Amino acid sequence: MAQAATATPAEDRAMLRALEIAATGGVPLGPNPRVGCVLLADDGTEVAEGFHRGAGTPHAEAAALAQAGDAARGATAVVTLEPCNHTGRTGPCAEALIRAGVRRVVFAQTDPNPVARGGAGTLLAAGIEVVDGLREAESRALNRAWTFALEYGRPYVTWKFATSLDGRSAAADGTSRWVSSIPSRQDTHRLRGECDVMLVGTNTVEVDDPELTVRDAVDEPAAHQPLRVVMGARDLDPGRRIFNDRAETLHLRTRDPHQALAELHGLGRRHVFLEGGPTLAAAFLQAGLVDEVVTYVAPLLLGAGRSAVGDLGIDTITDALHLAVSDVTVLGTGAETNVRLTMTPATPVVDQPWAREQPRPDKEQ
Question: How far apart (Å, rounded) are the C-alpha atoms in residues 351 and 365?
């Protein structure tokens, strides 16, 4: 695709800056990736920069070109993602770069979107030098859920739960709020805000009546709220807090995790934060649809109560679902101490003998 050329040190520094501005806080997540662009003069100095601020706003390249004006002619564009090659709410960035007279484009990640990709070829055909793959790993990490969703055709799923040391998410009398600490709950809101869907089952709505919104450190609603999704066939009381006006809510009347994710993907949703109860979690695990696990472990023992996950049909230790730990963080101090574990399935769940049939939950969610 791109020409056999290497990036310069100045372009590498510019890519780091492009990645930094692409990650600017407050950008709504969802159907569009986070993208940054830096324009360089021939001597390696910065001419302009820009980043994408969300669906319907100018793309990073367009923002940088508008800032640069005539200074864009003969410049090098350093972009975290291959310039798009299609017309959506905005025009194709590849054509904009050509019209601006840019002489060279360096980008990190090839666009996985089949509708938008191909900008590199358009640039090459116009006689522009193109270098790809510079800090590709960092770009993929920046948009990990979006990249996954475009490559696999479904949203990335993070399952979050809180548990005691003995694997209980609630005491025998049903009380559960004190299992996780205040710092853990604040951290949960941070993670919620990084997703574009929060998903629970109908049983969680009926029993726990969650509002399922993102709140800040002082417990006020955040400006950006992910889509609240309830999954399950049964009717629900419209007076439940999840149906209030603080965020948009969707009721998916299905018990099939595959169907639920397909519908959400069709709506442009790329990252699902699974917060349902043990039965819903087990259904997604058995379907091989959990990509990341985040658990907050409290240093306490309950001895009885609700399990953090439902029956997975595992009869022997050799069939256990093993998780690879990617991060261990202690949150809080004293009585408010919890340990956050971030993990991914070490072996794809669908490869486990007990999951090959992809059974559906036998209990309505």
Answer: 25
27: its two tokens: 């950008």
Phi, psi of 179 (to 5 degrees): -65, -45
Domain boundaries of the chain, sorted by first residue: 9-143, 153-348
Confidence band (pLDDT; 50, 70, 90) for 276? Answer: confident
* pTM for this model (two decimals): 0.87
| Residues taking part in catalysis | 61
User: How confident is residue 2, by pLDDT bands cut at 50, 70 and 90?
Assistant: low
The predicted pLDDT at position 348 comes to 56
Going by the annotation, the residues of the binding site for substrate are 176, 192, 212, 215, 275
Please write the tens of the pLDDT for every residue from 188-244: 999 999 999 999 999 999 988 999 999 876 677 888 899 999 999 999 999 999 999
Q: Domain 153-348 is of which CATH architecture?
A: 3-Layer(aba) Sandwich (3.40)
Architecture of domain 9-143: 3-Layer(aba) Sandwich (3.40)
